[in-house]
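Order emerges. As here.
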Amino acid sequence: MINVVLIDDHRMVRSGFAQLLTIEPDIAVIGEFGSAKEARHHLPGLPVHVCIIDISMPNESGLQLLEQLPSGMGALMLSVHDSASMIEKALQLGAKGYLSKNCHPDDLIQAVRAIAQGGFYITKDMALQLATPTKPLTCQLSQLTRREKQVATLIADGHAIKHIADQLKISPKTVHVHRANAMEKLAVDNDVCLAKKLQQDV
């Protein structure tokens, strides 16, 4: 039996993936966590073969959790974004697979089985992306929405989340979401790297 853990801040997403996977006779979902912090606390000691991890979570990127997974657990990264730079970043940090959240259900099941057997899994489309030159930084920055760039710039300038929320008249949680989306699109996993990316465009 392949034991799987789901790590995603959206309950509906976890529920949908759990239903899809548990239909398979050789796959069992033995845990669901809504944040990297929660997963980090509960994962040690669990008999997990594959962790399915959302990259873009409000308080902490799934990429940061990826670097701290207990040994023996294979990681399948899930994202709404499938840029070559993000795929490369995840694989460099130790991910065994990468899928877009828009993937076909069969891809998810095949990926779980491949990783559980010690292999890797990305779709043919992603493999083609990795074979082409990386987009210039200006193209990466153009992927950011106006609000994501505002939030990223303020973070790069050293402002606290609460200050940014007050200044932009949005909630701190929304600031975290924009921050996470910006980091994912720019293939970075912390505020220092985010600031460096933005400085390169100045």
